Amino acid sequence: MPVTFSIVAPIYNELDNLSELHRRVSEVMSGLKESWELVMVDDGSTDGSTERILELAKQDQHVRPVIFARNFGHEAAITAGWDNARGEAVVIIDADLQDPPEVIPELVEKWREGYEVVYAVRAEREGETWFKKMTAALFYRIVHRITDVKIPLDTGDFRLMDRKVVEVLKTMRERRRFPRGMSAWVGFRQIGVPYKRAARHAGVTKYPFNKMVKLALNGITGYSYFPLQLATYFGFAAAGLAIIAIPVVIIMRLAGHGAFTGQATTLIAVLFLGGVQLIFLGILGEYLGRIYDEVKGRPLYIVREGPEQ
Ligand code: UDP
Ligand code: MG
Fold first, then answer.
1. How far apart are CA 243 and CA 246, in angstroms?
2. What 3-state class would DSSP assign to 95?
3. Residue 197 Cβ < 6 Å to ligand 1
4. 83 lines ligand 1 (CB under 6 A)
5. Is 99 in the pocket of ligand 1 (CB under 6 A)?
6. Does residue 77 line the site of ligand 1, with CB under 6 A?
7. 8-state DSSP, 250
8. Is the distance from the beta carbon of residue 94 to the nearest atom of ligand 1 less than 6 Å?
9. What are the angstrom distances between the C-alpha of 252 and each of 61, 246, 258, 259, 267?
10. Relative to the alpha carbon of 204, which ligand is closest?
11. Ligand 1 binding pocket mutation candidate from 74, 154, 159 (most atoms within 8 A of CB)
12. Distance CA 8, CA 101 (A)
């Protein structure tokens, strides 16, 4: 049976949200009067979410379970969703109900108008700490500034994508993934729809600060060489400074000033340049490590239990 809509939910320890997610998605989708499925990707949950997903799948034909062998991360779970979705349009939605399923019909409406990617823009955020909001806002702006692809601001992974777009994304098997960047990179006709991001229905965030930093790094290194180029700019600036400083110091010395004598000046220059070089070595290492990861070509995720076809 052909499926029109696939709703993909990445799930990591969301036991208390699953029934509500299933209920609200079912309600919204039955209102659309088209065939649909709910792809529940279990990203190595340990709180019983896995059993609950399999139970829901038994009770309701709409539920399509994909169970990972361990935790592979949100991005891998979204990828498995793309791989397993059969719909003509695929919607990615958080399992904690921060992305209200009631927004889906608005996304669908734009899709029917001919847009191939309809992303939901967070016009307001509820129930998150100011620290989370601030780091998120900063994160979106830095990534926007540095990367070559214009990733829309204040936009998460909540979006609808046409089958054509999903087929392209499925061919992009890079390991360090940044789904919203990938979805901007492919092009097509894209449009944003504002929505109010709700507070979590239950449970706690699985995106602590260190994971946000990792995500930001993936966003920046995946879509820009800027950090690598920084070394060149810095080298030119330092060399330029030296070229100006050399004649100045010679003239001052000849004129009898005791300019820049003593060890301190030498030490500062050595420490400064040494430090800068180590930083850029680190940046090189970051890109090198990413290349190594790609070269190994391991699978992006491992499925322990998949949907029956
Ligand atoms: N998630 C996942 N794997 C992970 C971390 C998170 O599948 O390793 C899922 C999580 O269950 C949720 C979504 O990704 O459905 C977004 O995570 P979360 O709500 O914790 O992030 P936040 O909204 O706080 O940024
Ligand atoms: Mg959340």
1. 6
2. coil
3. no
4. no
5. no
6. yes
7. H
8. yes
9. 85, 10, 8, 6, 21
10. 1
11. 74
12. 11
Question: Which tokens sit at 199?
Answer: 């507070």
Report how far ligand 1's centroid is from the alpha carbon of 41 (Å): 11
Walk along the chain (309 residues) and give the pLDDT tens digit of each residue. Answer: 688 899 999 999 999 999 999 999 999 999 888 999 999 999 999 999 999 999 999 999 999 999 999 999 999 999 999 999 999 999 999 999 889 999 999 999 999 999 999 998 887 777 677 887 787 788 778 877 777 777 777 788 899 999 999 999 999 888 888 888 888 888 888 988 888 888 888 788 777 778 778 877 877 887 788 888 888 998 899 889 888 888 888 888 888 877 667 777 788 888 888 988 898 899 899 889 888 988 998 889 999 988 876
Which ligand is nearest the CA of 14, by number?
A: 1
* DSSP symbol at 153: T
Q: Position of tokens 């994160």?
A: 139
